[in-house]
Amino acid sequence: MEQELKPELQIRKVKGPDGVEFEVEPLRDYYCEALPTVQHGAYIQIVEDFFNWARSHSLWILGFGTGCGAIEMRPLMTPRFDAYRYGIQWRPTPRQANLLVISGYLSVKTLKRAIRAYEQMQSPKYVVGLGSCTINGGMYWDSYNTIKRLDDYMPVDLYIVGCMPRPEALLAGFEDLKKLIRAGKAEGANQYAEKFDWYKSNQKRVIHDWDMPDYSW
Amino acid sequence: MRALHIRLQHLFPLGELTEQRPDLGFVTVPAAYLRPTLLHLRDREGYTHLVLLTAVDWLEEDLFQLTYLLSNRSTGCDIGLRVKFPRQAAHMESIHDLWPTAATYQRELREMFGIDFPGSPRLHEEFILEGWNDIPPYRRDFDTLKYARANYNDRPGRETHDPEQHMKQQLYPDGA
Amino acid sequence: MALYTPDRSQYPAKKADGTLDIDLASGKYLKLWQGPNHPGITGNMSVELTVCGDEVVEGKTHVGYLHRGFEKLMERRSFIQCFPIVCRICVPEPDFNEYCYAAAVEDLSGIQSPERANWMRALILEMGRINSYLMYLGGQAGALGLGVIGQWTTYARDLMLDRFEEMTGARIYHMFILPGGVRDGLPDGFDQRMEETLREIESTMKDVHDVMFHNAVFKKRTVGQGVIDPAWLDQYGVTGPNARAAGVAKDVRRDQPYLVYRELEFEPVIGHDSDIYTRSDVRRRDLLMSVDLIRQILAKMPRSGPLIADMPSMLHWKIPRGETYVRGECSRGEYGYYLVTDGSGFPRRVNVRGPSYTHAMALLERMIVNINISDVAALMVSLHTYPPEIER
Questions:
Q1: Are B136 and B111 contacting, i.e. CB atoms less than 8 angstroms apart?
Q2: Could you tell me if residue B176 is inside a domain?
Q3: What is the rounded distance in angstroms from the CA atom of residue A201 to the CA atom of residue C304?
Q4: Is any Cβ of chain A less than 8 angstroms from the Cβ of B59?
Q5: Does the distance separating the beta carbons of C363 and B26 come in below 8 Å?
Q6: What is this model's ipTM?
């Protein structure tokens, strides 16, 4: 299944504004080519508990509306439901976020972007699957273009059921996630590093034109 | 609607008019006469708005049907032109020069049905799907359930019921 | 009306086949992806921009991130099984899918929905329109940095969602308009609570008008920006507020009245300058018109009578061979369903004609050329596109 790369992804010579020519390889990760590693907890349990407590109080959500569930995120940002009072806020870039909310079904095309966004987030990071279509396909159980189980492709810490879940359910879900984090049970990022090959093989099975590095920091 | 059909029949070898509503009719056009009919409707009869362009797959008859739906705002009438042609090596004349927006529809039909529109801009770029490796998915012989079963893992424990059987068991357990 | 004619002299030449001759290796151009994970994009879609300096020379819309294959899924569901999934095609205004699907099925099977159900349908469609416009106004202001408008309009939308909730039991996906009629009547005391909500929305809209439409920055960045030439309307299939802001009173509610719109008094809202500012203003005034329409509907609708027609057995419901097209005027423009049946218990083909299909693809690609990168978000939002109805 070798496909020819799109023109902007091919290795090419580029002339900068200062007249110097240099070669650009768009698919190469210039910053780090290392695969993810398991991050061990602190040496003393009480320090790790303290870290987890601190982590649980700053859930920064990546503002990536992958599906229809994203529409209930907007009321959460406004005074009526006001998720900010729980230390939850939305960030525009994966570099600043530590919680990826998969808001509903993922089509194969979005899955590719969601994986990239997830890998670009800094550890410790968490994934919440929102809506029944992330759990078993939901309404789209027989669709040819949506994945059925999100946890085949990325480590999910928590699912919030419903189609679609109400804002109150989201708030309750985030509170549950905080409990998991405080108990040290939200180890999705480490799980991803441990079973990296398994996740990658699953991802490559459905994403047919794989034109990105295996792991993007 | 009927008067329009009679006027058109003087000019083009059209099929019978199916009058679905007083303001909506469908008529079959031979593929060779599609373009003049569209031009005539657009420039002489005031059907200037291309509402949609879509395809229907008549697998049993081995035909593709393209429907060009045009609308005339001043009379509030719509006419749908049906064009039928064989499914093998399906291709049709592009109308992107009559309505620039038709290029989008033709890109979708190319991807979802595999109907070729030679000359339409950006026709071979991926539109909706990415890395698709099966037959075009909107064709009738594509089985979406089979594809989903083969490619995605189901979570165990999911139960599905045939609605008819399920309701019989739930509502009429004694077989009434 | 002063049309903006871009100066293309310093931009790439056209090749013989009409595409631009863009040489990425020259270092003059840069590819920039706006979306899908980007705050300045309407939902989950993306625009591939080729920029020269900070001006866009070419834009290509990429959709398909939300494709679920509805048209295929509906071919293997019976007519009543299609009803709960159609609303999922368009998230912020799902009721139009339910209405258009129900109307198409009724048209082909010869079922007449009762008078009272038609009033209920018109009521719920107008409520959905208000919701959609409120979201739009928040997004349009947000695209230009006026975050507070989004807070206010989301608050007003939440009030309307409460009315939806007491009427249908759900906030977003109502599944209320089913083939043959509607599911239920109005709850007790609904009129009074609705009136309170409408007053609250009107007062919010007054604030929005003062803060957004008189804001110097908003005016500076939107007046004269993103003009749709009225000659493009037919070429690009522009409908709805985008067409009305260009001075053409294209409104399905007036041109081909459906449901009960013959009995309501209204005039399509039109604007004349066809820029982003006018489009926002047309939508704001259309929202206030919907408020008025809801009042008229509540005053005139019958309070008793059947809500659903006599229906055949849902399990053995077969519709004879035929095809039809039904349309309605949703908040973005003409929403339509093309339904083909073949005499079996399943639809042969369903095609959803969402207004965004033409607005976000061909029209946006034409309009995006020669504008500044920072105005791309405002332009996209001003066309009021919802990606799920493009790719279904």
A1: yes
A2: no
A3: 60
A4: no
A5: no
A6: 0.87
Measured between beta carbons, the chain C residues lying within 8 angstroms of B54 are 338, 349, 351
**CB–CB of A117/A146 below 8 Å?**
no
- In this structure, chain B runs to a length of 176
Contact across the interface for B154 and A149, Cβ inside 8 Å: yes
Instruction: Identify the three-state secondary structure at position B133.
Output: coil
Residue among B104, B52, B102 at smallest CA distance from B79: B52
Q: Determine contact: B156 vs chain A, CB below 8 A.
A: no
CA distance A113 to chain B (A): 12
Cβ of C24 within 8 Å of Cβ of A72? The answer is: no
Q: Report the gap between the CA of A7 and the closest CA in chain C (Å).
A: 9
- Of C289 and C43, the one with more pLDDT: C289
Taking CA–CA distances from C236, the nearest residue in chain B reads: B101
| Region class of A74: left (phi > 0), else alpha (psi between -120 and 50), else beta | alpha
Top residue of A144, A151, A156 to mutate, by most chain B CBs within 10 Å, is A144
The domain total for chain B is 1
- Chain B partners within 8 Å of C112 (Cβ): none
CA C11 to CA C59: how far, in whole Å? 14
- Kindly state the average pLDDT of the residues C125-149: 89
Asked if the model's pLDDT at residue A74 lies above 70, the reply is yes
pLDDT score of C291 more than 90: yes
Q: Quickly list H helices, B17-162.
A: 34-43, 102-112, 144-151
* Partner residue facing B129 (CB), from C64, C235, C250: C64
Q: What count of CB pairs under 8 Å joins B to C? A: 99
According to the model, what pLDDT value does residue C1 have? 43
> Could you read off the pLDDT of B97-151 as tens digits, one per residue?
888 888 889 988 988 888 888 888 888 888 888 888 888 888 888 888 888 888 8
Residue numbers in C near A120 (CB within 8 A): none
Give residue C260's Cα distance to chain centre: 20
C-alpha span between C332 and C237 (Å, rounded): 12
For residue C36, cis peptide bond before it (omega within 30 degrees of 0):
yes
- Angstrom distance (rounded) from CA B8 to CA C217: 54
Alpha-carbon separation of residue C132 from C115, C165, C255 (angstroms): 26, 16, 22
Domains and CATH numbers, chain A: 45-203 (3.40.50.12280)
Give the C-alpha distances (Å, rounded to integers) separating C311 from B18, C190, C258, C326.
25, 28, 21, 20
C176-211 tens-digit pLDDT:
888 888 888 888 889 999 999 999 999 999 999 999
User: Where do the domains of chain C lie?
Assistant: 70-354
C269: enclosing H helix or E strand: none
Q: Answer whether residue C7 shows pLDDT above 60.
A: no
Q: With an 8 Å Cβ cutoff, are A71 and C173 in contact?
A: no
Structural domain harbouring B129:
2-171
Residue B77, min C-alpha distance to chain C (Å): 8
Q: Which two three-digit tokens encode residue C69? A: 């294959």
Closest CA to C114 of C201, C184, C181: C181
- Looking at residue B133, which CATH number applies to its domain? 3.30.460.80
Cβ atoms of residues C94 and C174 within 8 Å: yes
Place of tokens 């007249």: A19
Q: To the nearest whole angstrom, how far is the Cα of C194 from the nearest Cα of chain A? A: 19
Domain C70-354 fold is Cytochrome-c3 Hydrogenase; chain B (1.10.645)
In three-state secondary structure terms, C109 is helix
Tens digit of pLDDT for each residue in A85-100?
A: 888 888 888 888 889 9
Among A109, A144, A147, whose Cβ lies nearest the Cβ of B144? A144
Chains in touch with B (3+ beta-carbon pairs under 8 Å) read: A, C
Chain B contact set for A112 (CB, 8 A): 130
Q: What are phi and psi of C252, to 5 degrees?
A: -60, -30
Q: So what's the pLDDT on residue A1? A: 40
